[in-house]
């Protein structure tokens, strides 16, 4: 179903750290993160619908009509969408939720303005987070209005943003205890070296601990399915055709402007993704 941890404006040099698992049917065709040729987007792609669950604005620069894979430009825009689980099935005429991400990444609207103009009823249930280097906003079509994120650690899954599900609170606790301190040490003592904290982040995203019965949410699905979906990383024989497909870490770094030391720092988004290998038999 998907889950994301967003550390927003906790570190001056790295105002965004986003950890995400994408859960999906194993047979759904997907292309791993890459530079799209038809849109200024770097993201994985749902090849069935054409959209994405997490991406950044990025376009390759060209010279004399020859594209360079090593030179690209960004405008700081990033977005993620997660399904909302309430037992309500998508209607045949509803749009793909992946369009919400691509729509923001290719628009000129501010995060708040974009969130306010979304046609909520045109999509099945979703939680949408859109942002740039100054503002991040969350909205869903289950009664949660466009709201700017405050500085802090936010956990978003498949319910309301303030729902304290077992998987959400477990991810919150592990990120707070195991990842954020290493990021702080990295920025303070290791020149921001991401290799100092990335292994811990990947490890947290691979947590398959399920909730005890008394901590299962009630989202309109059978208890056995609630339990199978209750871990940060979904990898269980109870769901042989479904599970965590892609794990991603998105960061936004503030870099000194070497051409103008008095100018505002430059923003650099980095999206690292890996395809998770389901281990259950």
Q: What would you say this structure looks like, in words?
A:
- By secondary structure, the protein is an alpha+beta fold.
- 19% of the residues lie in helices and 33% in strands.
- It is built from 5 helices and 14 strands.
- It has helices spanning 98-105, 111-117, 166-189, 198-205, 223-228, and strands at residues 3-8, 16-25, 30-35, 41-46, 54-57, 59-63, 66-73, 78-83, 126-131, 136-140, 147-148, 152-156, 242-255, 266-275.
- A 7-stranded antiparallel beta sheet has the order 3-4-5-8-9-10-11, covered by helices on one side.
- A hairpin with a 2-residue loop joins strand 6 and strand 7.
- Helix 3 (166-189) packs antiparallel against helix 4 (198-205).
How is the secondary structure organized here?
Elements lengths: L2 E6 L7 E10 L4 E6 L5 E6 L7 E4 L1 E5 L2 E8 L4 E6 L14 H8 L5 H7 L8 E6 L4 E5 L6 E2 L3 E5 L9 H24 L8 H8 L17 H6 L13 E14 L10 E10 L6
Antiparallel strand pairs: 1-2, 1-12, 2-13, 3-4, 4-5, 5-8, 6-7, 8-9, 9-10, 10-11, 13-14
Helix pairs in contact: 3-4
